[in-house]
């Protein structure tokens, strides 16, 4: 399983994979798990605001709680909290650092068209 995860992460970073196909058994509160599932629904190469995620989990005023759930995400690449930005379009925070978040978003933007063409 570790080799499979490593292979998929390498493929993702090389722009060869848009989604991870790994069995996940994440532990957290019901709210955290709901937020993490909403993060997994953000398409590759796209972003959503904290407000969008709050609405997706039926807590329209829970922006701050969304941010807290993101910081507790145990698999931040596979459960893509880097795709969550502030409502004004700024980066917001990221546990791995804003530079890493920027690089991940740029990587996805660079390759997203390949996956849109494949899906069409």
Instruction: Give the low-confidence spans.
Output: none
Can you identify the CATH superfamily? Winged helix-like DNA-binding domain superfamily/Winged helix DNA-binding domain
Mean pLDDT: 93
Molecular shape: globular
Radius of gyration, in angstroms, nearest whole number: 14 Å
Tally of structural domains:
1
Question: What does it look like?
Answer:
With 120 residues, this protein is mainly alpha-helical. The protein has one domain: Arc Repressor Mutant, subunit A (Orthogonal Bundle). 51% of the residues lie in helices and 3% in strands. It has five helices and two strands. Strands 1-2 form a two-stranded parallel sheet. Helix 3 crosses helix 4. The protein starts with a helix and ends with a helix. The relative contact order is 0.15.
Give a topology summary.
Layout: H1 2-13, H2 30-40, E1 48-49, H3 50-56, H4 63-71, E2 84-85, H5 98-119
Parallel strand pairs: 1-2
Helix pairs in contact: 3-4
